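Help! Submission page says 'invalid entity' but I think these are all valid:
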Amino acid sequence: MGTFLTNSSIGRKLVMSITGAFLVLFITFHMAMNLVALISTEGYNMICEFLGANWYALVATVILAAGVVVHFVYAFILTFQNRKARGNVRYAVTSGHKGVDWASQNMLVLGIIVIGGLAIHMIHFWSKMQLQEIMGNHENALGYAVTDGSALIAYTFSNPINVIVYLVWFAALWFHLSHGIWSMFQSLGWANQTWYPRLKCLATAWTTLIVLGFAAVAIGFYIKSLGCCAGC
Amino acid sequence: MNFTLKIWRQKDAKSAGKFVEYPIKNISPDTSFLEMLDILNNELIQKGEEPVAFDHDCREGICGMCSLHINGHAHGPSQAVTTCQMYMRKFKDGDTITIEPWRSAAFPVIRDLVVNRGAYDQILQAGGFVSVRTNSVPDGNAIPIPKADADESMDAAACIGCGACAATCKNGSAMLFVAARVSSLAKLPQGRVEGARRAKAMVAKMDELGFGNCTNTGACEAECPKAISIAHIARLNREFLSAKLKD
Amino acid sequence: MAFKLDSKIPAGELAQKWSNHKAAIKVVSPANKRKLDIIVVGTGLGGASAAASLGELGYNVKIFCIQDSPRRAHSIAAHGGNNAAKNYRNDNDSVYRLFYDTIKGGDYRAREANVYRLAEVSNLIIDQCVAQGVPFAREYGGLLDNRSFGGAQVSRTFYARGQTGQQLLLGAYSVLNKEIAAGTVKSYPRHEMLDVVVEDGEAKGIIARNLVTGEIERHGAHAVVIATGGYGNVFFLSTNAMGSNGSAAFQCYRKGAGFANPCFTQIHPTCIPVHGTQQSKLTLMSESLRNDGRIWVPKKIEDVEALRKGTKKPSDIAEADRDYYLERRYPAFGNLVPRDVASRAAKERCDAGFGVNETGLAVFLDFKTAIERLGKDIIKQRYGNLFDMYEEITDVNPYEEPMMIFPAVHYTMGGIWVDYNLMTTIPGLYAIGEANFSDHGANRLGASALMQGLADGYFVLPYTIGDYLSKKIQAPKVSTDTPAFDKAEKDVKDKIAKLLSIKGKQTVDDLHKRLGHIMWEYVGMARTKDGLEKAIVEIQKLRKEFWADVRIPGGDKEFNVELEKALRLVDFLELGELMARDALLREESCGGHFRTEHQTEEGEAKRDDEKFAFAAVWEYKGEDAEPEMTKEVLDYEFVHRAQRNYKD
């Protein structure tokens, strides 16, 4: 049974959809936690502490990283196979198809943007928090405590360039997930003519909620940073 | 009407191909697309040139023989029709029309616009049937089938095997074709018996022949001349995964 | 030497003949079947079902088709349905009634025993197809639905939307695939049979051309089955597929197989008319449209001219100025007269100058009255898809303006002569489906072509071929390294070389169109002695012109569509003449064959049972020699022949 996940096209898509589903759930929680930062600095830092270098958080981090890696590696394998299947000679003229989402045709590119954003995000946050904790440090290079997530957020989004980079990242995420979420159900076989409109509606709503949540934190903290400066 | 045709010419599978432009004049808007190519060929032969090879047969949109990627669309810009059912009034006078063969690694070009679609036959040979012998069957009415199921089976069975789905898919995936057959038989009690075996065998053959992985873009459904729904792909996924999970 | 025709009809009561025959004929043991090879040419309903069934029995089967897949055969285009005497409707249908309707529909020019057998096995076809997963239309109770068709008073037609032919063929193709997977059948797509090889008076194989590479190949077998359909494309324009041709059948004729009733052609009244000189084929509109549509042309010639100039639309012509000629001539049946009558009446009006489109070859099929009576919604429900298709093709909205229709060649009842075992006059050579001279006499009823193809392939040939092959169980593999194969291959190669060497000025299509014009004009819906004689001369002239002036670009060792078409046209040019000869000989009108000289006072077909109650079986005597005709007398033991009457 193990092998069909690697050597059959539908099996590979199953892996994509399960890892994808897992990542969607993760960022949904992540977004929910971020919203706490807007409301309560202490609350957010409590979460940061809870999810620091504790064994359960580390296990989860490893699983999460594996999910990202598998989703990413499979994406490249699938794309490589698909390009090969397309043949050496490409069409001279291609046109859009009625009823076909732009995002669905550009999932890899969107995915790469998402991964790129993730790398920046990891440098901004993870490398200054959990990584430092693992290394045994109690303070990061910026001088904040490793569990002081709120301070790090405030610092990062006080820079308008960071805000713009993050917003681009969120936009790519929106497109990626708007196709990814309903596609996940399709790959699992949990879809039909009646459910397509519902699934697509669900995907759009969910994606929009996630992206708005993230964007609210980035923009909120930028505005706060303006207010804070004026106040100081 | 006058057009400039930009047509892919390729001597045989081994030769390199290229686009050649042909002007064509005085075409009646009531001429079908393939008749327009007939007219071009007749002119080419009279000029001592080789005619353009293209596949076609019934010219009523049912045999699945005609193909052609026209201005970026499988079976041309019209919805839910085959190339043979498209008429020149769909184009504007003076248009340049680019005509390419199906492009897919599993459909190698034989000549000009003709490709080899034998891979589709091979997929069906892997399991696209009910294993029933001639004469070893019950009475037709001994197998009642809910009307809705028979109708849905028929929706999938409308597939003409033209290859537009794989040709149009950016991934070169044949999933819609495979799904149409698997789904049509899965909706009927006669087909259910071998459902698991069929789904596994046909998907394995499809993968072996080098078709790509479906990424649910839906381009196949949009370009399918019979407008077959990707809901059948969902059913194929279901059939395949549940079969594999039982192994 | 004339044929000694033995139809091998078994003795006994009509209903017992097939059972008795099956009990009497020999079978081949499984161990011996493995040693025997069979070639099936053509993969339509007949060919696919035969090859699959023979493969299941254990024979080694090779199948050949000219398309890229067996699934493309033109059986796929049939709309209507498949008749079977199931009596699921409790409307007193029976095997006998189906038999009787078919014999009468064929105007008493078919063999009683064959037609009875066809009706007898019709029920098995439905059972077989259902088991294969053919999605026939169902009623809400989950059981099979039926609809009515022409020429019958019961509802016995099984259907799958408007795509019954497609679904039945995909069923046969699926079991064929099963056998290909099992290794009992080997498939040769894009291969065309160019000759049949006859050695020691028996069929021993074929010469085929690989259409991709141009290679000429030899294939030997203990028996050869021809299932290549009809030859309607001799008319150039027909409802047949572009590739449909009569060449395989004609090679058999050249090699000594009798060709029976070549002039029996069915012309279907409701096709979309020719739009200009460049049209490649004709599209059938379902006969069901005549249930609600009214057929007319203008009464006044000035209206005809105004229509052609575009100064008037059909809807501008007043009711009083319309000639509903079918209702005028046939008040009892009106627009629902049989196919042949409707076709001839349309031709008569167009010949008189009242044809309504640019070419003058069309009549109106108008739904105005029906829309007024029933409302647009009902009409849309009934015919919506047909109306859409019509609009796609013609750019005319049939809800607003009447449709234009014209008759078109649709099916050929004539074909290779076969006995009760479906064997031709050459031992070991069989012909099934539309390729044989069939069970349809002089006219085929709707929903009977699918029935015949599948009956022959699934339920008749697999038994009867065993009787012949039982004598071959000691025979070794057929060698293709024999003088007969050498000669056949050389002849084919010479013919191709000769065609390519002509390098004339005219294209194959242009010459084919001219043949089509001659055929349509003189061997079409209404035939006369003078016209047929003229046709023979004209075709001979055209044949000479072809061999002197055809231009075929490209070479033989490549994918060469023009060469394929030219090879088929060579045979059409001779077949057309044979059809004219047969029509000339048959000094009567029956079914689809209408001799203007032989009609009743009301203009109906007038049969002559005294002189013409036979199948005319033609024997090839050389390219420019006149063929010889042998009669197979059709004895009617069980049915009383009557003047076909659909008037009251």
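Support: the input was valid. A stray whitespace character was the problem, and the output above is from the cleaned input. The mean pLDDT of chain C is 94.
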